[in-house]
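To the wet lab folks,

You asked to see what we're planning to order before we commit. Fair enough. Below is the target structure as tokens, and below that is the sequence we designed to fit it. If anything looks off to you, flag it before the synthesis order goes out.
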């Protein structure tokens, strides 16, 4: 047993539950003679981290029985060629989800590529239509990491209703949707960012602190209140090892719950992608 004050919130076990749920859903579809759900992953260039993430996603597809395609593109691919591929995947009846692995090469406008994906196949939940739906509370395809965080907190029976949640980071991928999902759970939410004055003043008030900025060790023990729940989404490679945004060794002695990095939120991000592929399958089957 770990000698620490905080209980470790590991994502592996709840992620395996989700993978098993999806596997059973796919099995039922196959047993009834229906086609498998399909996921297409597009990766441009040779970013090492992106390659690792894509491999994990393909392994999860194989585990669930989801049909998957990987489109590996040269980093010099033109925007026009990438738009053509997205258009073909949008029209492909065997593909329910399209995931374009970010970051894209610098000469390609990520915003335009995301907007080109059919919203019903946007398993990342990044399309402006899905973001708009999320903001008013009836989105089908939620961003995978924030969706995974909510599942993790519920798995550990951490009450969100009425709690003060502080989100450090306001990216479109994690910070902003995280804040909206917490609001949907009736939490009181504060969002901090690079222009926030006196970050520690806000983080000390958090019942639940969610760090998502990608700055290793930015959250110190003296920046949290005793007994706070700490969710570390940050992942930065330092000397070959993944480091979170939280000074884990010191913060764990003060928090009540904390996620490690790695093996905290990460497994749930991939699991929620599988769940979103099933949701996209349902949406596309109705067309």
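Sequence we intend to order:
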């Amino acid at each position: 047993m770990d000698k620490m004050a905080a209980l470790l919130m590991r994502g592996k076990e709840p992620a395996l539950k989700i993978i098993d749920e999806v596997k059973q859903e796919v099995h039922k579809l196959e047993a009834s003679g229906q086609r498998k759900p399909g996921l297409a992953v597009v990766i441009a260039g040779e970013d090492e981290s992106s390659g690792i993430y894509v491999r994990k996603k393909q392994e999860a597809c194989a585990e669930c029985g989801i049909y998957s395609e990987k489109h590996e593109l040269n980093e010099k691919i033109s925007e026009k060629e990438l738009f053509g591929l997205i258009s073909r995947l949008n029209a492909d009846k065997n593909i329910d989800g399209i995931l374009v692995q970010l970051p894209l090469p610098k000469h390609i406008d990520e915003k335009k590529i995301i907007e080109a994906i059919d919203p019903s196949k946007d398993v990342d939940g990044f399309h402006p239509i899905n973001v708009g739906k999320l903001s008013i509370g009836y989105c089908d395809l939620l961003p995978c990491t924030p969706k995974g965080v909510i599942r993790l907190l519920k798995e550990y029976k951490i009450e969100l209703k009425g709690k003060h949640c502080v989100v450090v980071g306001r990216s479109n991928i994690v910070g902003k949707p995280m804040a909206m999902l917490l609001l949907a759970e009736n939490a009181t939410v504060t969002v901090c960012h690079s222009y926030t004055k006196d970050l520690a003043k806000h983080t000390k008030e958090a019942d639940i602190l969610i760090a998502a900025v990608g700055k290793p060790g930015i959250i110190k023990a003296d920046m949290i209140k005793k007994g706070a729940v700490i969710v570390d989404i940050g992942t930065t490679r330092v000397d070959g090892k993944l480091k979170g945004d939280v000074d884990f060794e010191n913060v764990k002695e003060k928090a009540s719950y904390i996620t490690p990095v790695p093996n905290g939120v990460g497994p749930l991000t991939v699991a929620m992608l599988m769940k979103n592929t099933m949701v996209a399958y349902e949406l596309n089957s109705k067309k």
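Structural context that might help your review: DSSP finds ten helices and eleven strands in the chain. The first strand starts at residue 7 and ends at 8.

Thanks,
Computational group
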